[in-house]
Amino acid sequence: MKILFAGDEHPYSAYALNEVARLATNTWADVTLLGVSPAEAAGQPAEGQPLAQTLHGYRETFILQAGGEGSPYALGTGAMSGFP
Q1: pTM, two decimal places
Q2: Rounded to an integer, what distance in angstroms lies between the CA atom of residue 29 and that of residue 4?
Q3: What would you measure as the largest C-alpha separation in the chain, in angstroms?
Q4: CB 5 within 8 A of CB 30
Q5: Can you list the alpha helix ranges (DSSP code H) found in the chain?
Q6: Contact 51, 9 (CB under 8 A)
Q7: Residues whose CB falls within 8 Å of the CB of residue 32, separated by 6 or more in sequence, listed in order
Q8: Which of 26, 53, 54, 70 stands the most exposed, by the fewest C-beta atoms within 10 Å?
């Protein structure tokens, strides 16, 4: 199973992320987190946008919720090991 989470800086994205983490915990799905920025942000470096920080926070939240012992989402295992 694959899950694509497309989030922005609005509160409904945080709610959706909680649901993704819950579903991923039960299915061990391949989860991709995607940040969606407004059109006026196009062409600007990602590091300068608040969305980059928000997406990093979403990643941390996901790992805390779904990355328990024995989980493929725990830090230091699988694909997650290559990220700071």
Answers
A1: 0.76
A2: 10
A3: 42
A4: no
A5: 11-27, 50-66
A6: yes
A7: 2, 3, 4, 5
A8: 70
